[in-house]
Amino acid sequence: MTHYPAAILALIKNFARLPGVGEKTAERLALHLLRAPRGEALALARSIEEIKDRIGLCRRCGALSDGELCRICSNPARDGRQVCVVEQQADMVSIEKSGAFNGVYHILQGVLSPIDGIGPGEIRIDELMARVGGGHVEEVILATSISIEGEATADYIAQRLAPCAVKVTRIASGVPVGGDLKYVDQVTLKRAMEGRHSV
To answer: How many other CB atoms are found less than 10 A from the CB of residue 11?
Structure first.
């Protein structure tokens, strides 16, 4: 790639740092921006600068926000008595897209993983305990992933919440709609059998 000027090489290198972007894709993106109208390229640069300057975390739930509270936490129509605990912002977005929940969220910013040096102090468990201790929360819904780390995190939080006067539930998991049993992993199938209900 030495045939490109230094400025283009620098842009390719920066694009290649993005997750899921390889060198070829980074090169295509850089060349696209070079050919794009100046206004379009500058709008992209301003958008990047703006998110770095204006976006932070909601002081209550940990979601991305351009204010002290995110749009969900500041919405009086949301039921603050129900708190759904998720690992990351993307998990919250998935639940929101389903339209199945009208409560509020608590984003942990990760899961417990001793191998990676992530203990309870590295994710937002103490903040959750403080919210529950405030006395307004009636139910905590644990919606962490069905991975070993996600399960361990849910179990740990449930144990921490056991002495509190709050209902603790875990989202159901099982066979997806349209799923073929022979392709479903054993953990999911086990959870589906355990969570079966009458029809």
So the answer is: 19
How many Å apart are CA 136 and CA 139, to the nearest integer? 9
Q: Kindly give the residue spans of alpha helices, DSSP state H, lying in 1-142.
A: 6-16, 23-35, 38-54, 89-98, 125-133
- List Cα–Cα distances, 173 to 140, 143, 146, 187, 194, in angstroms: 17, 10, 8, 10, 10
Q: Does 162 have pLDDT greater than 70?
A: yes
97 located within any domain: yes
- The reply to whether 94 and 155 lie within a common domain is yes
Q: For 123-152, what is the mean pLDDT?
A: 92
Measured distance CA(128)–CA(119) in Å, rounded: 15
Residue 68 lies inside a defined structural domain of this protein: no
Is the pTM higher than 0.90? The answer reads: no
Task: Judge whether residue 2 has pLDDT over 90.
Answer: no
- State which residues form the domain around 128: 79-172
Please give the tally of structural domains in the chain. 2
